[in-house]
Amino acid sequence: MDLLSGELNARLKAASGPTLWLVDENIQLSSAPNAAVTVVGNRFDVIERLEQQGWQARFGDFELSDFANEQFDCILYRVSKEKPVVHYLIQEARRLLAPQGCLVLLGDKGEGIRTYARKAASCLGGERQEQKLGKDSWCAHITPGPRAGDCPEHQNYPELRPACEDDTRVYWSKPGLFGWNKVDRGSAFLIERLPEMLGQSLPLAGRMLDLGAGFGYLSLNAAGPDTRLTCTDNNAAALLACRFNLQQAGLEGRVVAADAADRVEGPFDVILCNPPFHSGFAVDGDLTDRFLSAAARLLDRNGTACFVVNQHIPLERKAAPLFKDIQLHADNGHFKLVRLRQPIHP
Ligand SMILES: C[S@@+](CC[C@H](N)C(=O)[O-])C[C@H]1O[C@@H](n2cnc3c(N)ncnc32)[C@H](O)[C@@H]1O
């Protein structure tokens, strides 16, 4: 277990007064559930796991408005990757902390923890103490005080905004989502080649799954009025953005919170997927395997799954135990498109 996780676990265990633990995907947990702690997190898989272990946990896009002012003695937060999310949560801490309370920020130097600590102290208006846990890891304590100031850098995190566009439309999104303000070049490559990959024109008819949908780019470009569309993701902000973009485009679809589609029932005629390979600050090759297994489970016997991945990911090898028909359809030097058919259902 890394130093930050060790420190976080010790604090979760020791918490006695009302404590809020803000969590995204960066956790290694060893501590038993503590009834003093309320957990709020934006990753469905993390919250589902914590609930199963007995934690009082809530999934959402860090909507904290129903907590009362000054409700918590302590707020624990291992900082997220996206700056506006961190600044927004620091601002929320200012309202939620009791006068004698404490915001505890944990993070590495490269993640900007020391800057966050400084800015949190000027936002909360109290004192800050920083504790070095190891070479790069820090734990900062910030208390509320009389000199509370603005926290302007949250960029209105709660709101969706027009984030990027192409020839067809504007995509609404927000910081914290995968590639939130750009069309992913791999996904654009998949859409460009999709008609020839499937042997049918767009929009698609039939049952389609967008696996790891993000803000819905693949669905928005492949689906139409005759598509029975399901989109799934584990990120609360992605689910919000996806629902909004589908609605803007006049598309009907189910948008399902799940961990690698574990709550989704098939079968589907077409599955589209640009699988994740990052989990928080770490690379997680296992995620690709889990997405492939989900695709095999959910694909109709006569269906087709179309994946786009970075060129270096050995998708064909990983897919070999799961599909009888695996074809490298295209490779543009950066991304490859792989067509999977005839799933091997156990
Ligand atoms: C590479 S992005 C692709 C997004 C979108 N389909 C696109 O083409 O722009 C991968 C997506 O998988 C989601 N994801 C990551 N881990 C997941 C998990 N365990 N379960 C479900 N979705 C996950 C991420 O939130 C992200 O939206």
TrEMBL record:
**What domain of life does the UniProt record list for this protein's source?**
Bacteria
Q: Which InterPro entries does the UniProt record give?
A: DNA_methylase_N6_adenine_CS, Mtase_sm_N, RsmC/RlmG, SAM-dependent_MTases_sf, Small_mtfrase_dom
GO molecular function terms listed in the Swiss-Prot or TrEMBL record: methyltransferase activity
Cite the Methyltransferase small domain residue spans from the record: 172-338
**Signal sequence region:** none
Q: Where is the Methyltransferase small N-terminal domain?
A: 34-121
Q: What is this protein called?
A: Class I SAM-dependent methyltransferase
BP terms from Gene Ontology = methylation
Q: Origin organism of this chain? A: Marinobacterium alkalitolerans
Q: Does the keyword rRNA processing apply?
A: yes
**PROSITE patterns in alphabetical order:** N6_MTASE (PS00092)
Sorted alphabetically, the keyword list is: Cytoplasm, Methyltransferase, rRNA processing, S-adenosyl-L-methionine, Transferase
Q: Where, if anywhere, are coiled coils annotated?
A: none
